[in-house]
Structure formats: structure tokens, C-alpha cells
Amino acid sequence: MTYGPGAKALLAGVAFAASLVGPWAGSALARTNYAVVVGVTEYPQLPRSTWLVGPRNDALMVRDYLLNQSRVPFEPANVAVLADEVEGGREPTLASIVETLDAMAQKAEAGDFLYLQFSGHGFQQTAADPSTETDGLDEIFLPKDTGRWVDRTKGMPNVLVDDAVGAAIERIRDKGAFVWVVFDSCHSGTATRAAPGDDVQERKIDPEMVGMPAEILYEGGSTRDVLAREAPVETGPTTAASTRKGGMVAFFAAQTNETTPEMPLPKGAEGAAKYGLFTHTIFSRLSENPSVTYRQLAEGVLQHYASINRTSTTPLFEGDLDTPVFGLEMDEFIPQWPVKLAGSGVTIAGGLLNGLVPGTRLAVMEKAGDTLDKAIGFLEVKSADNFSSRLVMAPAPEEPEAAAVEAALAPAEPQATSLRVKTLGDLPAGAYARLVETSFDFTLTVARPAPSESHPERVAMVNEMLDDLAADESRPMRIALVEPGAAADLRLAVIAEAEVENAPIGASTLPTLWFLPESGELSLEEGRRPPSITMESNDVDAIGDAIGQYLLRIYRATNLARIGQGSDYGPQEVDITFTLRRQGTGEEMPIETTSLSVGQPGDRVHVKATNNSGAAVDINVLYIGSDYSITFMGQERLQPSATFEDEFIEFTEGAYGKELMVAVASEVVPLKATLDLSYLEQAGLRSMTRGPAPRSVADLFDAMGAAMDTRAAKPSSSRAEKRQRGSVTIFPVRTIPRS
């Protein structure tokens, strides 16, 4: 499904008014929790090429989480699944979806909670009432029995129209229930897939697939203003009557002219099933820490997309985002699970979605409330699925030298309990397995270029150069080469501009090496053109040196975004905000972590940082360009309660596209100089012819820049010893030429 820059989309007529709700007063235990989970994989009346795999798996995963993992109770009778071949589920036809939504509207009462999930294809068609849509198009979700397009007045039979979804949600909210709706669907994109992704399918419908003339969508698209927001969150005085209306949060997988994919997940896992990337990321982040607000969850989703170089898709989030997910009380979450003996191993109810990949280390805790220094043994993940893991015994981790120095300087503390669990038979009843470290993989996975009939010699040349680069241990980066189409952070393609679909007249016929994002998409539009090297000459050394420089810069920019998942400050402890100021008009608007702001040349960005943490904090601001440039904007040391304000950024002419502002906060270590990340600065890419485990966010930057280890780890928040805290917050922005 597509959604505009501020998108009302499928929720036409729904008021996202945080002020109408106030604090959600309903007790998470006293209320009734409902869910409607729709996953459409088969479309019998549409071409087989439109069929999907992931939506059914999305539905099963969501149901499993709600019934077995959620910290709020969902009864099986209150979780309706509409997906094919699901035990106890219904077919996801239009009638079934409408009937189920109507039933929920009748059952819901004040204080109740409703989760809605729509996985499948979305599309657009001419609006039944053009006056309700700024572009004259209705957003629609395609149930299983959707038929081919008829004409402008009748559209496509059996589709779920935005107005109908919005009306159903409003009926539920009018009863006083809170609604969280997730749309893992999209409409279409305009870029060409130039590098294969063998197991990746975009949830995308092209007009010809349903018999619709393409110009209908183009007419609507031409009326959109990328600088406009269609449905900003309303604010205003709260009245006694309005507080009875239930709140709402909506998560959208993609914006207008973007696609959202399904793929085997987790990436690289043997035998992984296909899921929607959006749904899988949401529930992975939620499994890792359920004690978050919707805004924090949304930030985690966007940071993950940045960390895997998914630049072609930007999810959108609207509504009461500062409400805790599922209405839970905000408390410290400790990632630990009761252990259960199973034959020659141990099982726990935490798995891949909790970040427990094979090799992950966990400490054995005799009591749930014990601090980590009281660990009585260690376990390691042998195998895992979404929500469970099998563990085996593991040796105690070696403490790095830095830890020994820190311990010597720290005040005396009780001695750690001696490790007494040396075999599975030593495990005491009621023991817990607690996650010890969160891993960061600094390897850049690069997919080789696919074979080319037009340029076979150039493809062979590139592959030989890649082999040399991967084997060169003197370079400050770690790259892993995979075959074309395999899961990768970066995809390479050898193709001439003239060979790209919809290439302009006069496009170059020279063989060109393209550095493409995870999606493999290539667009020649201004502002969306990826970096490239035109291999006009046979100068192997020059071309090899250029490829090495490109990969190093992409490596650093990608890993900087990857570190963004490593934050351990509480909400508002370090408050950093960015404000966009328009050139000429002086109009100001906040840049949010959960939405894609649009900047043009001449616009400026104002930053404000306040330290409420109780200890001094170093602030660094960096800017990651769409060309993989890293610009150091400045730094400041903030004492407790201090505030810093400045204009750090002005957008300039040049490269355009999706870019990231990165705010880094690091707790000050006594007698240590201000953290200075200016050494990460690097020029962007333009089209051209030819150690030990880190213990803090600051250390992670050092590890990334020096490529010390293939993997690095940041201790989890459950560690007992004093350590340096830090956070990395990413603010996405889209830059476009000034019209």
C-alpha cells in the first residue's frame, strides 16, 4: 500500500489526534485484547506472478507472538486470523475481512485494545468520491477474491477501500478502545531491479497485472506535493467528551512510490522462511525489548532499515506514538528466560526474534532478580527458531583488560559468585538464562555482479578485484562476498546506462559498475542515481583502487547507521531535536525520527540538545549523505541540565536522496577528552570514469573505523558493573532539488 509524505492512506477520515486520548487509563490486565490478522498470499483472479509467500507467515508469526510472547494476555478466541491454510483461520476474502472488523466493532468496549495487521498487496484506483482524495485516487488493500480492473467508475471488484477501513476503525475507537494497525503492503516503485535478489519479492502490483491503464496512476501521482503532509497529528484542548474516544497508532510499511519486500528472515539463517521485512522487523525489535513506546519501536525499525542499507523503503508512523506498546507500564526489561531441561540441552522461550542467534552467550542466573556478578554459569545458543532456542554449556567469557583496570579503580564490591554450573545436571530448578551481550556485525556483505552477456570481461575483472580486496587484511574494513542474488548489504551490477529500463535518449553505452542498495534497485532519476564507476579504460589498477575506496566509504557509512541500534539512555535523559528551517519563508518544522522530512538546497537544520541524565555527556552530530558521504557537523560537551543550540546543517546542491542525520551522545569519562568523531568524516561517492570487545558506544565507533574484529559486542544493560553509557539516534531526511 502506498502512503504520501504524511499519509492518511487507508485511514481516510481517521483523526490522529493524540490530544483526544490523554493517558490510556485501561489496565493491561483488566481490559480485553483483540486482534485481527490478515495475510493474503494467493490471488486466484490475478496473474500467478502477483502471488506472495510471506503474508501467511506474517500472520502465523504475529499470532504466535500475541498468544505466547506478549506480556499482555490475548485469548485464542479473541485473535482472528484470516489467511489460507492456517488452522482455525478463515479465508482472507473481502466479506470475511469486513465481517470480522464489524464483529470487533460490536464486541469492543471502553479500555479494550485491538491489534490490526494487513499483509499482502495494496494498490490505488480512481476514487469513488474524488473530493475525498487530493490525488483523485483511493488507497486499497487487495483481499484474496480481488478481481481485475473493470473501468474508471467500477475499479477493481472486491477490494478493501481506505474509507471502509477508516470507518471500521472509527467505530471501534468510538467505543473507547485503542487501535494499533500495521499495513505491511505497498503499491509500486519506479526504479529498475538491476541486481538480482533471488529470494526477495517486492509486494508490488503493476497496473498491467490487473488490466488497469498505467496513466490512471500517473495522473494521480502528478498531483502529489512531496513537501506536503496530508494528515499531521492534530493537537488541541482536551474536552470531557473527547477523552472517551480511543487512541490510535498506525504503522505503514512504505511511502508513495516505494515498495516493501518479503524475504527469507533472519538473513543468512539456514532454512529461513519468507516474511514481510516490515512485520519481521517490528516483532524482532519488540521481542528484544517489549518495554518501549510506539515511537521508540518505530525508531528501532528505521534504524534497522538503515543498518541493512534498505534505502529504497521508508516506513511511516502516525498517531499516539508516545503511548507504551500494548499499554504496558514502562519498566526496565531484562532479557532473560526460564530454562527448561530437554534431553542433552536446555530450551528457553526466546529465539531469533529476540536476537538469539547461534553462538549468542547467556549467563545462568539462580534468581530472576540477581545481578550479573552473581552468575553461576554460562550457556550458548546451539540452534534457534523465531521464539525458542536450544542451549548448550559454554565456558565463562574472558574479561578484557579494560574491565580489569576499571574494576581496580571502582569502589570495592562483593566478590562474584564462583561458577558452579559446569554441566547441565548442575542447573538448579527455577534458573534463568540472561542475555549477556548484544552483538554488532561490522562485516559488509557484498553480492557479486550477475553474469552479463554484454560485458562478460568487465564482470570477470570486477570479481577478480573483489577477491583481492576481500583477502587484503591491511584494509580497515571487513567484506564478505556472496553470489549474485544472495542476501547482501550491497549489490553490484555491471550494466550500461542505455541498458537501464526507461533510460533517457543519449544515455551512455559504456560498461558501468553500479553500487546498489540491498534492494538492487537502480534509478537514473535526479536525486536517486546510485554511485557508479564507468569502466571506459582497461586500467586495472585505477579501477581496482576506485572500487576499494568506494567499498571502504560504504562500509563506514553503513556501519555508522548499524551502531544506531546500540542506545542505552532512558527516554528524555538526553533530549536531542532537529528543526528544519525553509529558505525564504523561514517556516519551521520538526524533523522526527519516525517520519521522512523533505529538505531542499538552502534549507537549514537547527539542533537542540539537553542533558537530563545527571552526568556530563558529549554530543556529536554527523550527516550521512545518499552518496555515502559522512560529514562531521560538530561536537559539544554538556554538563548536567545544560542545553546546547546551533545551526549545524545547510542543504546544498549536488547529491539528492534519502539521507541520515546522526546524533551521538556518550557519557563523559572523568579526565578524558571530549569524544570527537570528526575522524569518521569522508567525501561522498560520485559517478566517475575508471580487537577486544568494545564496552561502550564510543568504543563501537573505534571498532568500526579500525575494522578490528568481524564482530563486536556491547554489554547489555543488565551488567552489574559501572560502564559508560551512550546513544546513537538517527533522523532520516529526503533531499530533493529546488523546484
Q: What is the average of the pLDDT values?
A: 81
Unreliable residue stretches: 1-9, 16-26, 222-226, 228-242, 399-416, 687-695, 706-722
> How does the overall form come out from the CA principal axes?
globular
The structural class is alpha+beta
Overview of the structural elements:
The protein is of the alpha+beta class and 739 residues long. It folds into 4 domains: 9-327, Rossmann fold (3-Layer(aba) Sandwich), CATH 3.40.50.1460; 340-430, no CATH class; 444-560, no CATH class; 567-735, Immunoglobulin-like. The strands form 9 sheets. Strands 14-20-17-18-19-16-15 form a 7-stranded antiparallel β-sheet, with no helix packed on it. A 6-stranded mixed β-sheet has the order 2-1-3-7-10-13, sandwiched between helices. It has a 6-stranded mixed β-sheet with strand order 23-22-24-25-27-36, covered by helices on one side. The longest helix has 24 residues, at 540-563. The relative contact order is 0.10. Residues 1-9, 16-26, 222-226, 228-242, 399-416, 687-695 and 706-722 have low confidence and may be disordered.
